[in-house]
Amino acid sequence: MFFHPLDFLIIIAFGLSLWAQFRVKGNFEKYAKVSASSHMTGAEIARQLLDRNGLSDVPVEHVRGSLTDHYDPLKKAVRLSDSVYGSQSIAAISVAAHEVGHAIQHSEAYGALVLRHKMFPIVNFTSGIAPFLLLGGFLLGSLNLIGLGIIFFSAVVAFQLITLPVEFNASSRAKKLMLSEGMIVNNEERGVSKVLSAAALTYVAAALLSLLQLLKFIAIFSQGNRE
């Protein structure tokens, strides 16, 4: 009960998650020092890509913080952080174009993104409750609480898995858009790919870690039922 066979894989997945975060920070810092040949800032790249894809009504806004960049589907706004908004670096324009990729997904009703948006209110609730149900179930030896916790946690894992194609697609769109618009040249494509791939890896690691944890809870629940 104290050490489950899946715990070894969970430790490896946790290590992968830490390494992915370190890689994101390292690649961003590296390419934040490399200026793009276009000499356009992250905000200018985002604005131009949005306009050329019929999204002139989507604003590009400045948000405080580091790597806090995101696309807000409710306000339909691309928000870029301090290190991206006014920077002309390869890292900045990569992140800016990625967020534009999400805006384009939204405008095209990209399936995985639509599903993620619909799931968000549910997951926002279950993610806060699941840990308490599972902890309470284990402390009290209640299979009913553990079972309910598993159901709630399953929604969180499903959300993370659905996020993967959304993020990979946005990154793919970002690189293709910048190449087709001449915003990056061939020797800059490698840097863009490294920045975007590192970011995508964090989502993969997080999803893998959660999936393994879910499988462990299910195995414990099943064993308890048999006993």
From TrEMBL:
Keyword flag rRNA processing: no
* Entries under InterPro entries matching the protein: Zn_peptidase_2 (IPR007395)
**Transmembrane segments annotated in the record for this chain:** 6-24, 122-140, 146-168, 200-221
- Which PANTHER family does the annotation name? MEMBRANE PROTEASE YUGP-RELATED (PTHR36434:SF1)
Pfam families, A to Z: Zn_peptidase_2
Q: Specify the protein name.
A: Zinc metallopeptidase
Q: What keywords were assigned to this record?
A: Membrane, Transmembrane, Transmembrane helix
